[in-house]
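Translate sequence into structure tokens.
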Amino acid sequence: MRTFEPLEEGKVRIYDCGPTVWSFQHIGNLYRYIVADVIRRSFELLGYDVTQVMNITDVGAIMGDVDEGEDRMAVAARREQRDPLEIAARYTDVFMADRRKLNILEPHVMPKATEHIPEMLLLIEQLIAKGHAYPAADGVYFDISTFPGYGSRLNRELQEDRVAGARIEVNPHKRNPADFALWRGAKPDDLQRWDSPWGPGKPGWHIECSAMSMKYLGETFDIHSGGEDHLFPHHECEIAQSEAATGRPFVRHWVHVYFLRVDSGGMHKSIGNVHLLSDIESWGFEPLAFRMFVLGTSYRKGLDFTKDALAQAHRRLGRWRSIVVEAAQATGGASAEPDATDPFAREFRDAICDDVNTPRALAAAESALGLASAPTDGERRRSLGLLAQMDRVLGLGVPDWIAAALALDDEERLLLEERAAARAAGDYKRSDELRALLEARGIRVKDTKDGQRWERIPPRRPK
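Result follows.
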């Protein structure tokens, strides 16, 4: 680990490896994008001007990540009997809807691989001209012998082991067995193909990210993120082809998120534990409970998903919301702008500067939350201001809770006023009847020493 230093003062350029949109993204995939979102939000809170790019892979990602495998988009097209781009549009829409449910910010640029073929062809031509790539009968390959250290740049011991044990298909057209494809010659049944100087075909997976990241962020940029499965071959290939083409360092800082485990094991379709966000919703949990769950563990440790742990996060989220709503109603939604010297604000910033230490950041937010139950409006306003600022990183929806705490239509307002009057008059039977009416409208009423409070009822949690 080393101290972050931006390439350009005050600015941060980030590239996140996006999804291959051939199917639904499971919660392990979404976990990685929550981490990327928190990193972006942290830099923005610290005052940096952030540009975040996330690609959409709608061609080129090969099953098993070997050159001779089948393109995932072709697999999906055969599975669903639909055009690859129609499939890509469908699963991109679902993925982006899931992101929004998890309060993941939209990337500033979201390039699609199929819309950047010219940039990829130009990059391949540069590599051939510099002697780092060669045309073959079945495409174009990167010659790894021209790039010393290939396969060991990101983590030498780990990657040397992975390269040594990697499954490499025998291909007589390659100079070296581990040379990787930059361009794949078209096959008779290919549904996606483009013209190129080396004949019709389609790009290799790795060339896509190099071409798109450098187009929007420059030949060298600050942060490149992905999952631990991207370490090799994907990110090692990106480094090799990018630096061979430009002669410059490619990425200054790499972020790799460890896998999400399920009940201490891997996710496998064969045992039925590959869960989608829609599954979480069908169990009765709200999506942001999953975000709260993710924030409770450092991204460097990996995450062990269980329903019990998600239930705890669900309860924690509900407790936070209830406390914030009550404080917002007590103060009329007024909050105090946090002072930079506030010890809770300072602790929170120290936490996110500590390699985005979200468990520590949550602890700081819990301390600020404690002020929301203070007897004075001044402390409540301080709490609401701190929590709104912290939520710029946490992304749990605190400003939405505050706004919702004051949002009533005319009929709801009249019912609450009537109930308060009935209770004040000692008419508890009518008070209870009105409580039931309000609950039927999705409003839960709570009587406190400071008067009547209410909140919108969140999605029902599982039994």
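Note: Residues 284 and 463 are 9 Å apart (CA to CA).
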